[in-house]
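User: Can you fold this complex?
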Amino acid sequence: MERKRLGVVVDGSFTAGLTVRLDPGCSTEDLQIGSFMVVQGREYTYFCMLADLQLRTSDARLIAKPPQGFTPFVSRVLSGSATYAMAVVKPMLMMPTVDVADPARQLAGNTPEERGVMSVRTIPMHYAELVEANEMDFATVFGSADKANHFVIGQPLTMDLPICLDLARFMERSSGVFGQTGTGKSFTALLILAGIIQHDVGSTLIFDVHGEYAYGKESEAKVRVKGLKHLFGSKVLVYTLDPSDANKPGRPADGVLQIGMNQIEPEDVILMSQELGLTAKAGTMIGLLVDQYGEKWLSRLIEMGADELSEFCEQSGAHEGSVQALQRDLKKLARKRYVRTEMDSNLLDQITLALEKGKHIILHFGEYNSMMDYMLVSNLVTRRVRQRWVEQTEKWDVSQKDADRPRPLMITVEEAHKFLNPEIASQTIFGTIAREMRKFHVTLMVIDQRPSGIDSEVLSQLGTRISGKLADERDIEAVLTGVSDRSALRNALASLKLRQEMLIVGHAVPMPIQVRPRNYDEAFWKEVSVPTGSLPVDEKLEQEKRDLFGV
Amino acid sequence: MTERIGEIIETDSFTFVAESFVLNRPPALGSLVKAQAGRDMWVYGVVAFGETVSVDPARGAMRRSRPGAYDDAVYASHPELEHLLHTKFTVIPVGSLAGGRISQRLPAQPPPMHYSVYACDADEVGRFSERRLYLRTLATAQVQVPLEHVLAAHLVWTYEQRGRDEAWLEQAALEVAGLLQQDVERLLAVLYAVDPEA
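Assistant: Here's the predicted assembly.
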């Protein structure tokens, strides 16, 4: 396949990238920062990203006194000679040129490594040619949809061909989906979740605080899109906090989630200090309560009358005013309809078991969609699930049997900065998962529009980052925390359009790439949704529930 | 064989000067000419300079016109001028033809004194200008003439000889632009002069 020549390498270094003199006739306006290109060296072919474009003149007089009144002829001739353009390309991967020429070998392997693509270790000599990448180059680097666990996430900005995400790799490490409002974050997350469910690469637990994932939402184009429950039926179980929500037509729910005060731990409450308006002393008070009442500390505190409260203070030495204030603040929690005085762990166990069996769980918040509800419930559920996965991993470590290997689990959290901001990231369960849970086969997909609010240690642990346009310099910095070649990527990120363009960097793609995410529409739904078989959906659902829970 | 247009009266490795057979009519500035340099050996060159001067350097030309008798009438009433004046042109060698093969290298020997200079026809110009390496030789020649004007004249003349070949002109202009890119004033002088769209 012939590739269009764009210029020749004239300068550069391994660290700063290659400087390419663009050919006369190749306009800077034909090229886009961040796009994928190829440099053909003598031994190796280099897969590069366009990092910068520069305008140069050979004679300073052209800058001091730009000539006037050009005809097109003069301007054409000048633009290829005395005024010219340079491109800076950053080699990311390389491959022996003999292999590039051999399509059979090139496309045989399942991973880039198997296809002969390796990380870049050298640079080409002078006058190596820069050419446009063709379909084969994209397939060599990014794989094609027929490879195992490869999911078409979108298309490159300037070409119409599929770009694949390796979902198994995506789930191996925590990931982040970022971008300011309107960049298509949640649609991209929906695409990926649908891909994970379709390819069955692991289980997912989704905290659907904005009510977007279970039953879909209205798109920017004012079209009602399908949710994951609609697409995947019984593969996806929806638990809702809002019983009134469960009975609405077209919104099938598989259970109503309630939590007991006995399940709420001090750390859950401390996490919500801001939302509940707790004072700095609250932690100490709660500690005293726990000492006294154990896991019933919250229900006892809420039920305390004035006498009982003073008695407790006398015994424990707590300041009466502070305990009263704490009681007042925590009553906000107790008033939630989904909070019961006491619950056994059945419901949480059901959820955990379903995840283990390969189901996908969406927690739907319904009308309880305040930050407080979200933080309380997600923290609590995640803690239980995580505990189970740790047990499983320990079991597997002992038995070493493949059958015991824990199923990969990805937990999707929106508004991630609420859990992962630098003040509390070290205390919350999400902080722990982001930092070390890979070894327990649990990862996070954090979705946020303000990545700068997330703890940098957590950010640096993210394997795959998918980001739409970000305006704030701090957010851009945050997205690229712990990534190499940041200056090139910063340009690529800043040059994205507001809508429908994303930069993917990290573990699930062999090299950074800008994509237009595919449409989340009829065609996509048809492609991913499972055939429902002969049973009507509801009946089938019931049957699966019986199979699963024996009820 | 094309027309004989002059006879060499000064010659060295890098330039030669010929006397034109027609007074006041040297070949066009920038045109391609060739001189016989031996058996089956030719030197190609580009006309870089033309002048008409007195044959005797000690006796410069002087005014001959009178009221009512000027221009052509001067020559009609002074037939001896044909012998007192002569027209010379300077050629910068840029290539050679030996054994039927064109090369854009300078010939090993300068063309011999008193040998003939010929015009080149359109076919020959087409063949010689197919490759344009000779433009570099022309642009870097050490002669006391403003070479950008020679280059401009050569480009326009060749463009016409090639049947107004715009693709050729643009490529040639690009090459000249590459050669003169450090000196944009000279470059622009060439580009404005050759611009077919102006």
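Chain A has a mean pLDDT of 85. DSSP finds 24 helices and 21 strands in chain A.
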